[in-house]
Specification:
- The chain is an alpha+beta fold and 245 residues long.
- The chain has one domain (5-243): ApbE-like domains (T-fold, Roll).
- Helix content is 35%, strand content 24%.
- The protein has 6 helices and 11 strands.
- The chain has helices at residues 14-35, 43-49, 59-74, 90-107, 195-208, 210-217, and strands at 5-10, 82-83, 86-87, 112-117, 120-125, 134-138, 146-151, 157-164, 185-192, 224-229, 234-236.
- Helix 1 (14-35) runs antiparallel to helix 4 (90-107).
Length: 245
């Protein structure tokens, strides 16, 4: 996945939580080995070359490809598990893997979990009584500044994912052309219960552009978003204000 993960885990029996944390870290390394498009020996690279079938891969490969197909359908093709004509599900893998790691920790008894995968965050439970998780959204046009602060108050699970060009340049592809997406946006941040989907929807909306992206995001149940254009215009879904604080 080529990114850094961090964990903030509260509550639970220390031995159980520590064991689950070690398992979650090991699982993230294994997932990277399976899905890396930079390793010739990864299962996804071998699948792309035709050296393996999906049935011969680990079960997680079929699971991720099914999720990616669903994301492609729901986004009307704006999210794609292909990159410039080649199979590449990495657009969904990071969010899915981060969410999976967070849920492993809650199953071990943690009462509050915050897993950050390269800036995209899955929140479960709370850090303490009457203390919700809060996530700062970076301002892409003002390095070091914040565009918003998202609060998980009242939510047992919440995810925050951002797609944009400020950190990695023009890496988001327009699935219709196979070339870098040319839009008026510099960043899209999506807030939803699941990071698997929040990450996909942020990418799809960015490729659509601010007008179409915002209109589409408004149709998704339980999803709110913040879109920032290159002209420093901020556009939000109608319910986002309820998630800020």
């Amino acid at each position: 996945m080529g990114t850094v993960f961090s964990f903030d885990v509260r509550g639970g029996q220390p031995d159980s939580v520590q064991a689950a944390l070690a398992d979650a870290v090991a699982e993230l390394h294994r997932i990277d080995e399976v899905f890396s498009t930079y390793r010739d020996d990864s299962q996804i690279s071998r699948l792309t070359r035709g050296d393996l079938t999906v049935a011969e891969c680990d079960p997680e490969v079929a699971e991720v490809l099914d999720l990616a197909e669903e994301a492609e359908r729901l986004s009307e093709g704006w999210f794609s598990p292909r990159y410039r004509g080649r199979l590449d599900p990495t657009g969904i893998v990071k969010g899915w893997a981060t969410e999976r790691a967070a849920r492993r920790l809650t199953r071990a008894g943690a009462s509050g979990v915050n897993v950050n995968g390269g800036g995209d965050v899955q929140l479960l439970g709370a850090p303490g009584p009457e203390r919700p998780w809060r996530v700062g959204v970076s301002d892409p046009l003002r390095p070091g500044g914040l565009a918003a602060v998202v609060s998980a108050a009242g939510a047992d699970e919440l995810a925050v994912a951002t797609s944009g060009t400020s950190e990695r340049g023009d890496h988001i592809v327009d699935p219709r052309t196979g070339r870098s997406a040319v839009t008026d946006l510099v960043a899209v941040t999506v807030v939803a219960p699941s990071l698997t989907w929040a990450d996909c929807w942020a990418t799809a909306a960015f490729a659509m552009g601010s007008r179409a992206g915002l209109a589409w995001l408004e149709t998704l149940p339980g999803v709110e978003a913040l879109l920032i254009t290159a002209g420093d215009e901020v556009r939000c879904t109608a319910g986002l204000a309820d998630r800020l604080g």
